[in-house]
Amino acid sequence: MPLRPISDVRREELALAALEVFLTSGADRMTLERVAKTAGTSKGTVLHYYLSKEALLDRVLRDVLRVLGREAQASIVAQTTAREKVNAQIALCFRPELFTPEYARAWLSVIAKCAAGNGVDRYRRLIARRLRSNLQAYLRPLVGATEARPVAESLAALIDGLWLRRAVDPVGLTPDRAKALALTHLEESLAFL
Amino acid sequence: MPLRPISDVRREELALAALEVFLTSGADRMTLERVAKTAGTSKGTVLHYYLSKEALLDRVLRDVLRVLGREAQASIVAQTTAREKVNAQIALCFRPELFTPEYARAWLSVIAKCAAGNGVDRYRRLIARRLRSNLQAYLRPLVGATEARPVAESLAALIDGLWLRRAVDPVGLTPDRAKALALTHLEESLAFL
DNA sequence: CAAGAAACTGACCTATGAGTCAATCATCCG
DNA sequence: CGGATGATTGACTCATAGGTCAGTTTCTTG
């Protein structure tokens, strides 16, 4: 088998370093200098492998989304009933290793960036839409076609709001509590119809 | 009566210009240069009246919060029943002239700023806490002392999430629809107990 | 009116951060 | 071996943005 080209190795190492910086500093403060330092190299090298900071951020976000997508697929497809699928999706959003202040802050920094208009929109849309449309799909058998959309919309907004709070107040909201709030909301929505 | 000192007049004019820039550009892009230009003066003058950009932003946020606080007081105190008070609080959050993409983006930029650690924390806490604790107070007679907190927490998070969505997707969510979603959530929470 | 205080300005300084580039250094292949 | 290709670097430019400052104008007041 052919040895992996150095360029690929480097690109991956740099992406990893960038991810680390991104998670601790957010999208704005993820400077090329810091990424270089974290990777133990120079800014020039970073720009040698990624044409611009945007390209690097792109790669980082793509990686994160890919991983999340895979995990979602794995843990949701395993469920049989629609209700279990919704539950699994919610549980996924609040897994303790994901629902951390660092992740939340990083996520918020991306949202803010794209709300401000600086590129990167696709990712937010991707996350938000996928979350909502997944929920909507799982909810349809439970609440009917007409009610699925508003219920999913509300639940997705609640989840976003809880993430936002997590970003700003690292101690006031545990993963368990956040998950409980989301599940209660779901419960109530289902009971109400 | 004494004429108003020029310094006060200027400070207010500059605060007004700063508010305009803040609402259209967000906290980060509210540069001293732009504020000066908007006010029709020079950067030096801005810094003559406000010791730093942070001081200026401080003033802007303080003004906004004061106005919002006054409006809240006025429109909520007028209500008699607890349920009406909650409704009024929700209506206030989604008033069409407030729940605009511009406001939402500006608000998001502040949240992101303080999540990132750059000063200004007090304001987020102020907004978030006041909203939640107001809701909690109005809800206590409706759902009891033990349930008031989680219900308020959930509703506040939902409202935050809807604002967030408003910031990112200017067309997908009208004020009416957002308000309806929040009211439905409240309805369901009350019905469920 | 004159002098001091306040308003006001623009030139300057500094820091940060993205991106460029020519010059090295390593490696691989003919 | 020896050139070509690619990796790597650090010094450079450019732009932004906050903040400083000395000097000028304008106002106020004795």
Short description:
Chain A is mainly alpha-helical and 193 residues long. Chain A has helices at 6-29, 32-39, 43-49, 53-77, 82-93, 101-115, 121-143, 145-168, 175-192. Chain A has 2 domains: 1-64, Arc Repressor Mutant, subunit A (Orthogonal Bundle); 79-193, Tetracycline Repressor, domain 2.
Label this structure with key terms.
homodimer; 193 residues; mainly alpha; Tetracycline Repressor, domain 2; 2 domains; 9 helices; elongated; DNA-binding
Structural topology:
Two copies of one chain form a homodimer.
Chain A lengths: L5 H24 L2 H8 L3 H7 L3 H25 L4 H12 L7 H15 L5 H23 L1 H24 L6 H18 L1
Chain A binds a DNA duplex (30 and 30 nucleotides) through helix 1 and helix 3.
Estimate the mean pLDDT confidence of chain A: 93
Per the principal axes of the C-alpha atoms, what is the gross shape of chain A? elongated
The CATH first-level class of the largest domain in chain A comes to Mainly Alpha
Total beta-strand segments of chain A:
0
Please identify the structural class of chain A as seen in this structure. mainly alpha
Largest interface: A-B, 38 and 38 residues
What's the N-to-C terminus distance of chain A?
A: 60 Å
How much helix is in the residues of chain A? over 70%
Count of distinct structural domains of chain A = 2
